[in-house]
Amino acid sequence: MQTYPIPLVPGPVSVPQAVRDPYQINFGSPDLEADFFDLYAACESQLQTILGTGNHVTIHSGEGMLALWAALKSVLRPGDRVLAVANGLFGYGIGEMAAQLGAVVETVGFAYDDIPDPDRVRRVARRFQPKLVTAVHCETPSGTLTPLKELGDICREVDALFYVDFVASGGGVPVQVDECAIDLGLLGSQKVLSLLPTLSMVTVSPRAWDVIEAVGYPGYDALAPWRDGPAQRYLPYTHNWHGMAALQAGCQLLIDEGLTNVYARHAQVADYCRRRLAEMGIALYPRRVEIAAPTVTAAHIPSGWDWPRLDAALRAQGMVVGGNYGPLAGKVFRVGHMGNQARMALVEQGMDVLAEVLGG
Ligand SMILES: *Cc1c(COP(=O)(O)O)cnc(C)c1O
Asked: Which DSSP letter does residue 257 get?
């Protein structure tokens, strides 16, 4: 099996040693031991700090997609109206997921290389009167970052719940859950937090808890049992203690570094990455640099290359980047500089390899 000393995939990202260490420990049963519940509470508190919220943060066994489904299923009944704000693969996809659950979905759509226009979202929201508005903070496949504050204001104006996928940005970019009025905020473990793809987290506002209670969805991924379960020391399944210990370590790395320093580190490597790509004549995919994400850079496949050949040439040098899906497949590639991969030395090394491959 080939391994890659220059990992630049936008998730799962490389795992730092401090996050790997807890996997060597033998823990007891998370169902029974007080230590586990103390750990859960400590992780929730760290995540509240990182995400800027006083809301509950529920922590689930299962990677990022579990959070996306859990939050939809827990607040929607068939026939409920959902407004999907979409400017990329995940944004459109979340609308399709809601439709699969029987919701009446209207999508307010924008180009993949752009971000949503709040005025258009407001007009549609006023007419459509949705129960839930969904949006994506960082569209990982297209490398854009959408400001959330005004979308949150719109949700309050029309009295809708605000559902935000910040799986690829949370921790590396300020995500002000409370300031942006986010009712359901979704995070996964294998992006900025740099864990294995094992956990997902959901910030749940009091407004969202009320809806969750009223809907009463009962599945494995249901949010309802997490409202009082951790405090009452009763969870719906055997949790992933190793993953939770890793989560505590991963959050602590960010908090010890200082969140402003973490954000600056992401902004700096992203800026550097874009500059190096420009020097190589590679065009950034997002229309404007102001909307480019600090955690992942999406760029056009360089002229004279196709994706399979570029991918193979980089892999031969020990470097792996992200390809793409859907309409961007074969056209846009991605450099994932989030979490443990948001290191200048690594991105520099990656850009040197890319320059060499393209020049050679
Ligand atoms: C990674 C990611 C997810 C979770 O998807 P997986 O690839 O299955 O981990 C959800 N939303 C966004 C925006 C992501 O980047």
From this structure: H
Beta bridge partners of 319: 6
Integer angstrom CA distances of residue 253 from 104, 259, 342: 42, 10, 13
Do the Cβ atoms of 239 and 200 come closer than 8 Å? no
d(CA 45, CA 255) in angstroms, rounded, equals: 11
Q: What is the pTM of this model?
A: 0.98
Query: What Cα–Cα distance (Å) separates residue 1 from each residue in 4, 347?
Result: 10, 24
- Is 14 in contact with 194 (CB distance < 8 Å)? yes
Cα separation, 208 vs 77, whole angstroms? 14
Distance (Å) from CA 327 to ligand 1 centroid = 17
Fill in the amino acid letter for 358: L
What is residue 105's predicted lDDT score, i.e. its pLDDT? 99
Please give the number of the atom of ligand 1 that sits closest to the Cα of 190.
9
> What tokens were used for 26?
């033998």
List the one residue out of 112, 171, 85 whose CA is nearest residue 298. Answer: 112
**What's the confidence (pLDDT) of residue 32?**
87
- Tell me the C-alpha distance between 223 and 235, whole Å: 11
- Residue range 216-245: mean pLDDT, rounded: 97
Residues with CB under 6 Å of ligand 1 are: 11, 63-65, 68, 90, 136, 138, 140, 165, 167-168, 188, 191, 197
d(CA 212, CA 239): 22
Q: By alpha-carbon position, which residue is closest to atom 2 of ligand 1?
A: 167
Domains present along the chain, CATH in parentheses: 6-13+259-359 (3.90.1150.10), 17-255 (3.40.640.10)
What's the CA gap between 52 and 73, in Å, rounded? 25
Cα angle 240, 55, 107 (rounded to 5 degrees) comes to: 90
Asked if the model's pLDDT at residue 149 lies above 80, the reply is yes
Residue type, 237: Y
Q: Which helix (H) or strand (E) holds 97?
A: helix 89-100
Please, are residues 4 and 13 in contact by the beta-carbon 8 Å criterion? no
Picking from 4, 7, 14, the residue whose alpha carbon sits closest to that of residue 339 is: 14
